[in-house]
Design a protein that fits this description.
elongated, 5 strands, alpha+beta
C-alpha cells in the first residue's frame, strides 16, 4: 500500500531543510560569512515575512474593523514585509562591502551582488508605492460608485463622482506604467547598466513606433482631450456616428459603449469624432402619437 502523499511531502520538505542547514553550517565553519548570511536569509525570510505580514494585516483589521475600502490592513502587511526584507538587504549590503574578499572574484562579484541587492530594495519600495496608490484609487472608486440600481446604467450621484469613475481607472493604469518604468530603470542603473544610451534608444524606438502607429497615438491623444473636455462619463448615454450606447468603461485608447439592445461597441477615441451626449443635464425627446380619427383630442392631450 502506498503512503500518505501529505506525509511524504512533509518528509521531503524536512529532508531538504536539514540538507540546507548542513550546507549553511559548512559555510559558517569555512568562514564564508557573507554566503552564510545570504543562504540563511534566502531560507528564512520568505516564511518569516509572509507570517509577520499576515499577522500585521490581521492586527490592523482587528483594530480598525473590517472594511473592504480600508487601506490600513494592506499597507500594514506590505509595510511589515518591506521592513523585514529591507532590513535584511541593508545588512547584506553592509556585510558584502565590509568583507569583499569573502566572495570569489573580489570586487567584481561584490559590485554585482550589491547592485542586485539595491535593485531588489528599489523594486520592493516601488511595489509598496504601487499597492498604496492602487488601494487609494480602488477606495475612491468604491466611494464614488453608484448607490442606485447598477442595471440602470446611470449613477445618479454627483457629477464629480461620475467624472472620477471615468478618469481614475485611466490614471491608475498610467501611474502603474510610470512606476514600473522608473523602478526598472533605477534597478538597472544600480546594477551598473548605463541607462543613458538605453533611454536614447528607447526615445528613438518610441519615435519609430509613433510614426508606425499613428492611429494608436491619435487614439490616445484624442482620449486625453475627451477627458479634458469632459465630453462624457461612465453611465452616460452617448451617440457618435453609427455608434450609440451607455458608456461602460475606458481604456487608454478606446471606450466601451453598451447599446440599449445588448451589443457592446469598443470604439477607438480617434474614431469617435463629434459626440452627442444624451444624459448630460437634461434632454428632450420628440415623438409622434397616432390615434383614431374620432378620438377626443382633449383626452389625448
Amino acid at each position: 500500500p502506498g503512503g500518505d502523499p501529505g506525509s511524504e511531502r512533509t518528509r521531503a520538505i524536512d529532508v531538504a531543510l536539514i540538507f540546507c542547514l548542513i550546507i549553511l553550517f559548512g559555510l559558517r565553519l569555512a568562514g564564508a560569512g557573507v554566503l552564510f548570511w545570504i543562504g540563511l536569509y534566502a531560507l528564512v525570510l520568505p516564511g518569516l515575512a509572509s507570517t509577520l505580514g499576515i499577522a500585521a494585516r490581521k492586527l490592523a483589521t482587528d483594530i480598525g474593523g473590517y472594511s473592504e475600502s480600508d487601506l490600513r490592513p494592506v499597507l500594514a502587511e506590505r509595510g511589515v514585509r518591506l521592513a523585514i526584507v529591507g532590513t535584511a538587504i541593508v545588512w547584506l549590503i553592509f556585510l558584502v562591502r565590509a568583507h569583499p574578499d569573502s566572495l570569489p572574484d573580489g570586487a567584481l562579484l561584490t559590485s554585482i551582488v550589491v547592485g542586485i541587492l539595491h535593485g531588489a530594495l528599489i523594486l520592493l519600495l516601488a511595489d509598496l508605492i504601487w499597492i498604496a496608490i492602487k488601494s487609494m484609487i480602488a477606495r475612491r472608486l468604491e466611494l464614488s460608485a453608484p448607490a442606485g440600481d447598477a442595471m440602470s446604467g446611470h449613477s445618479g450621484g454627483q457629477p464629480q463622482d461620475d467624472r472620477l469613475l471615468t478618469i481614475l481607472p485611466i490614471l491608475r493604469n498610467m501611474l502603474g506604467i510610470i512606476i514600473a518604468a522608473v523602478a526598472v530603470m533605477t534597478a538597472l542603473s544600480e546594477l551598473g547598466v548605463n541607462i543613458g544610451p538605453l533611454l536614447a534608444s528607447a526615445g528613438i524606438f518610441g519615435i519609430a513606433i509613433g510614426f508606425g502607429s499613428q492611429t494608436l497615438v491619435k487614439d490616445i491623444i484624442s482620449g486625453v482631450f475627451y477627458m479634458i473636455d469632459d465630453a462624457f462619463r461612465v453611465g452616460e448615454y452617448i451617440q457618435s456616428g453609427s455608434y450609440r450606447g451607455t458608456v461602460e468603461s475606458f481604456s487608454i485608447r478606446s471606450v466601451k459603449l453598451r447599446h440599449h439592445r445588448g451589443p457592446i461597441f469598443t470604439v477607438p477615441f480617434g474614431s469617435l469624432g463629434a459626440v452627442e451626449n444624451m444624459s448630460r443635464d437634461w434632454s428632450i425627446d420628440k415623438f409622434m402619437v397616432t390615434v383614431a380619427f374620432d378620438t377626443d383630442i382633449a383626452k389625448v392631450k
